[in-house]
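Example record for the data management plan.
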Amino acid sequence: MKNGTEYHYPSSDAYTENLYSDEGITKLSQDSKIIRLLEELERKGNCVGGARDEVNALFNYVTATKKVKSDMITHLEYMKACIEKT
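Corresponding structural encoding:
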């Protein structure tokens, strides 16, 4: 998105609040204003490879963290079931 000749990626309180949830973080991997800005800068001839690598690393970290959280929940549920049997 552009407003005149400046880059324009506005936010709102509702948008920001939504970011602080698991669903909001997950949506960022599908549609990120940072990625759109980097793509726009790249189309204009700017070299943004380092910034893109950093964003990809953050997305990979979030994905891995979500998997670990899921595995931990599964393990805790198993331990709870074992305790309840005794």
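Summary line stored alongside the record: Helices lie at 13-19, 22-28, 33-43, 49-85.
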